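Q&A log
Question type: sequence-to-structure
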Amino acid sequence: MNPGYAGRTELPDNLQALFRPVMMMVPDLRMISEIMLFSEGFESARNLASKMAVLYGLAKSVLSKQYHYDFGLRSLKTVLVLAGGLKRQYADLDERVVLMRVLRDSNMPKFTFEDVPLFMGMITDLFPGLDCPRVQFASLSDALREYYTNNGYKSDPEVFEFQVNKALQIYETQVVRWTTQIVGPTGGGKTMVMDALAWARNPAQGITIKQWVINPKAQPLHQLYGFMDPETRDWTDGVLSCIFRQLNQPLPAGRENEIRWLIYDGDVDALWVENMNSVMDDNKLLTLPNGERIRLQPHCAQLIEVFDLQYASPATVSRCGMVWVDPKNLGYRPFYERWVKQRCGNGRQVDEAYAAEAQRLLELFDLYVPASIDLILKGLVNGEACPKLELVIPITDIDLVKQLCCAIDSLWATPEIRAGQAENACIGPVGYEKAVLEGTFLFAATWSIGAALSATSRIRYDKFLRDLGSKGGGGEMPQGGTLYEFVYDVSIQDWQAWKDRVPVYEQPKPFKFYEIMVPTTDSCLYTYLLEKFAQAKPILFVGESGTAKTLTIQNYMQKLDRETNVLLTLNFSSRTQSQDVQTNVEGNIDKRSGSIYGPPAGKRLCMFIDDLNMPKLDAYGTQQPITWLQTLMSRGFFYDRGKDLSARYESRDAILFGCSKNKILFFPSGY
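Response status: OK
Response body:
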């Protein structure tokens, strides 16, 4: 029993009296290491065991305190088993080199960016003068490099090799653990690394990876594991129990080289993950509420993709292999460079005809974006500290760059599309307009990187952008107000004040007081942003009550053509559940083919969600309806909750608008 863990309770007094309590002592890591090393064939086991005990003791006290760190007995046992296997494989290798390699390679994947040099210093001090090259998986490494190169991810050589190395770390962890947790903040590339490894194992090893993805927090616990009616004893299957049973069926003939991954893409709490402890340890058994026991087969593995393990118990952490994916190693520039290659080329390289435009896009990025992100997120100007700008919602650096790229695509067509339009109009080839690109980039940066700033911070950011532009030749800027008061109109290739674009007020006919909508500069501005940006990405309006967020979106939706659009409005409250959202969405989509669902043919689903931040938080800080929306937006599917329990894939014919107060408690990536 571990009664102190989250999600567990003490036994009642009358039940405790029937048991004899026995206190377990803390294990002696040095003695256990020495005995196991002797049993694995190490001759200098006593000396090496002392080094291991010292290393783990130092790691606990010196390294940073992270929720996913574990230096206990389970972690030690894994290292010792690996050391024994490596000793038998390389019998002539120095025993110190064998142990050093295992200690380094088994622990390095879980360390954060700052802890890596500290741990390497400890290893070097304990094993002085030893140079131990890392185990190379040549065919798998080549396949990973091929995947990244073919998909346009090869830019900075250091980042490129880091991504390859991180995928290899996941593979090495999966060799000894059947449950692996990929931990790290949003924007680190967790999903991309897993997809790369899944693809690369086929050409490198002839193994096909099949993936099943589920968000465990997108539905209540009884719909996840199943429910047994206490009166009738009727059993209702859950989403996870159905998938787990399906995955662990014997492999059919001809598919013996298949491995199945069950990926949990969502928050980890002490409720749903504690039920998986018996699957994660040596038992490999999932016991359902109806008494059914399903064993995890050798051809199945579990991966948990999560932000952090704040609410996971030490029992859960110690049972899993950990791989930390840090956004600091990836950065945001590779995403932008890949986007430039996609916009001005085939995704792998830039087309020579559009090289000038691609080069100018990179120059503008270097001029404005790194300095803006340093100011907004870090409070740095030229490396010196200054007051940070105030964001109304938390946003990561890579999400700011994503918004910038989507804004540019929405405001100005790609070179290929412009060339096609010119050919259809018989006006000859249309070249790259430097002034148009500079104006579009500046307006996009204002309403992407600077869109979530408060009113006072917008004034500082406007001055900052003007200073950068004047020093670096960033193009002409409008005068007589801030950049937020102007729009760059591509059709006239010039800046225009919002106040000059406000239409004349027209009285509704027949006159109804509640239909009065008096145009203002703000309503004109936000309607324009809706028209441009909402076509490419879901858009979120954030602000205090009474700022006309709902009215602006409703007015925009009323102008949409009902012949080509299906309108759906949802109002969230503190009692809204994910089942309510799913029922409303299912009521507006039809089955197209197989498991593909979407709005009626020829139409788009325009969904407006008001008061997005209203749903009640559970005990672990998750808002269930928003978690369900996140899965739909990022993965493109949801699970049926009836008797089918299969995945229903949503077509991309959908637009999502959201309104929220300033206090956003959970912010889905992708807005």
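Response note: The radius of gyration is 28 Å.
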